[in-house]
Amino acid sequence: MTAVPDPGIAVSVTGLVKRYGDHAALCGVDLEVRRGEKIVICGPSGSGKSTFIRCLNALERHDAGRIVVNGIELTGDEGTVQDVRQEVGMVFQHFNLFPHLTALENCMLAPRLNRGLGKAQAQALAMKHLERVHLADHAGKYPSRLSGGQQQRVAIARALCMEPRILLFDEPTSALDPEMVKEVLAVMEELAASGVTMLCVTHEMGFARRVADRCVFMDRGAIVESGEAARFFDAPASERLRGFLAQILH
Amino acid sequence: MNALPVDLALAWDSLPALLRGLQVTVLITALPLVFGLALAFPLCFARMSPRRWLALPAELFVVFFRGAPVLILLYLVYYGFGQIKALREGPLWVLFGSAFGCAILAFSLNHAAYMVEVLRGSLNAVPHGIVEASEALGISRRNVFIWVKMPLAIRYGLKAYQNEVVSFTKGTAIVSVVTITDLTAVANSIFEQTYDPFTPILCAAALYWAFVNVLRIGFDLWGRWLDRHNAVPPQEQAQQRAAVAASAGEIPVPAPRRRSGFRRPVL
Ligand SMILES: Nc1ncnc2c1ncn2[C@@H]1O[C@H](COP(=O)(O)OP(=O)(O)OP(=O)(O)O)[C@@H](O)[C@H]1O
Ligand SMILES: [Mg+2]
After folding, report:
1. Residues lining ligand 1, CB < 6 A?
2. Where are the domains positioned within chain A?
3. More confident residue, B246 or B186
């Protein structure tokens, strides 16, 4: 066990186990993500993708193994959990915006509460990131007045306002109508170019090929195969990945 | 002969007394609303706690004070506690010795028990995903409660709260049994003096009605203000009207509007 964490490593997971009662949702996952790396995670339903990604910011507490995020080891201690969450942004399948706040206020809340920014500062920060997701014109609208794609982009801006070094996405386009998937993926691709570390659960294979440095295939709570995108899709090594790809590509 | 069942002259003459009664009724409603709510919060947290030793007493409190009729509660506090010698000689006798104090106490306990359940229901209605999103942003549990859970819970629970407040207000009419001259007691005493069976009681009813409606209007305004995130902005309303006007001659088919947070069902 190294005392000094390697600054080039954003996320390091070893032997991760998560159980729900008798059922092991994750049974020994190892993954090391370098800083700035873009990882796409895919796999059949129930394979543990969400559970894995949610362990990284302690939305689920792991039962065994070691998780080090940005040099901070996640223990049961609440302090480490808060520290890690300041560094890690998350985007959910169902957006989960605050319905009682405008797009702008959605983005301002966390910086104001966590970083003690004043109203004007938080507003400037929020506008900067809303512009980044091309929604500056909609800053004053409530989520109920925005389309699904727009809501998801607000959710991305909201995460960016904490200026995280790592971004987690859990099927960010699965709840969207097809015509809105593109605008969200476009924003994510722009983000990827900015150098932030990304872990993204998605079945958007075009996105994976364009953006991912590495693709990871999970099945039954374990990583079965991982590799660089082109090889991953064109020459899958394992039978299970071949079967999975055949299924999603028809 | 008067065709009306109400003697207008008597009504006019009794108005000052009735208004003094209304004052008492307002006071005996408002104070328990404040104390009961203040008491309901810690009780609700205890009730929702995963720790049994906290949750169980809170649950028993709710079961007891919701189950016991307020009238009996009032008798118990007013006549029952007077029997306890230690209490009679203790400093709390300031509270238990006065009818007013006893009424406030009994009503507060009753209201608190109902509010624990209203609060709990509203807090449980806050979508879990929204709470998780706040936690993922690194917002502390306390701040999540203040800035996310409570504002949403108030919106979900407002109607239930309004119902409880209105029925509670009307329920205070029983305080006359412990010698407090609230609106009902004043109406009763006027009846006893005049033997007019309708005038005082109808006047009292009108004043209750006015009080309850002031509360209702207050709740409606509050609710509309809270619900502003679902309101259709004026320029959009104008656009919708213009679209209908433009299709003059055709039968205007109103477009389906997405109200509130349109969400796909979670599969
Ligand atoms: N809160 C929970 N309680 C009990 N079991 C759970 C819970 N969350 C997940 N599981 C189980 O853990 C396993 C992994 O679930 P997970 O949600 O991580 O899968 P997934 O790969 O994200 O699937 P999907 O593609 O459907 O989102 C599943 O078998 C699921 O039933
Ligand atoms: Mg999932």
Report:
1. A 20, 25, 43, 45-51
2. 9-248
3. B186
Largest Cα–Cα distance of chain A, in whole Å?
Answer: 56
Among B229, B263, B267, most A C-beta atoms within 10 A, so best to mutate, is B229
Cα–Cα distances (Å) from A157 to A12, A84, A106, A125, A189, in that order, read 26, 19, 9, 10, 14
pLDDT over 90 (residue B110): yes
The domain over range A9-248 is classified in CATH as 3.40.50.300: yes
The H or E element containing residue A53 is: helix A49-55
- pLDDT category of residue A2 using cuts at 50, 70 and 90: very low
User: Which among B129, B139, B226 has CB closest to A96?
Assistant: B129
Query: How far from A121 is each of A21, A127, B106, CA to CA, in Å?
Result: 46, 10, 49
Q: b/e string for B202-239 if b means 16 or more Cβ within 10 A?
A: bbbeebbeebbeebeeebeeeeeeeeebbeeeeeeeee
Place of tokens 């979670």: B266
Cα–Cα dist A107/A124, whole Å: 10
3-state secondary structure of B127: coil
Closest CA to A229 of A247, A244, A207: A207
How far apart CA B220 and CA B212 sit, in angstroms, is 12
Q: Is the Cβ of A61 closer than 8 Å to some Cβ of chain B?
A: no
Whether the predicted pLDDT of B122 surpasses 50: yes
Q: Which structural domains are found in chain B, ordered by start?
A: 26-237 (1.10.3720.10)
